[in-house]
Amino acid sequence: MSAQVHIVGPQFSTFVRSVQLVCEEKGISYRYGFKPDGEEIEFKSPSHLALHPFGKIPALLHNGQVIFETAPICRYLDAAFEGPALQPEDLLARAHVDQWCAALSSYVDQALVRNYLLEFAFPKGEDGSIRMDKVAAHQPAVIEMLTLLEQQLAGKEYFCGAQYSIADAILTPMLDYLSGLPHAAELMTATPELAAWTQRMQARDSGKQVLITRR
Ligand SMILES: N[C@@H](CCC(=O)N[C@@H](CS)C(=O)NCC(=O)O)C(=O)O
Description:
Bound molecules: glutathione
Order of helices and strands: EHEHEEHHHHHHH
């Protein structure tokens, strides 16, 4: 049987993984990659830009329709499919999840992924070495961001409250990668609740399916 949706993008992308986590949590069958119809979509090519006008990933294909941007994709999946609700019913609680989805996808992603983790994943130093000066320059902002996330989490089971939400799915891949760094314990000494939350997210069935550092 063919999958219900296709996620355009590579599996190592944190944002692709967030969409995968939502599919896993809701029991939606999916495929991912750059060949939704067998034909390769080249990154930034006209066929890519036709799916995502800003040339990013992921984009979602469902029933011949396209949606781009991770948080809206996740909200759409939550509304369009059966399975556990990943957004609160209450208007204010839902706005809180939305505000965090926006902040995680922008400020937090910039500090943790773009400025820091990508230096380890795709080193740009001489002979492919990690630029330790860049790492050192960005590390204080990483620790500051983790402290801010720890404050939001304070005493909660999930990132926005008592139930798993889209915000958990958006943050999990970032913290999973961070927790795989050799010096992760040093980065997270002051954020024990966040470290424990990361382990809980990795231990969920969805985490086991999607997060490669666990395998
Ligand atoms: N705001 C977008 C960000 C997407 C994004 O930055 N994706 C990264 C991969 S994780 C990407 O496309 N990077 C390639 C590039 O910027 O050229 C979202 O939430 O989906």
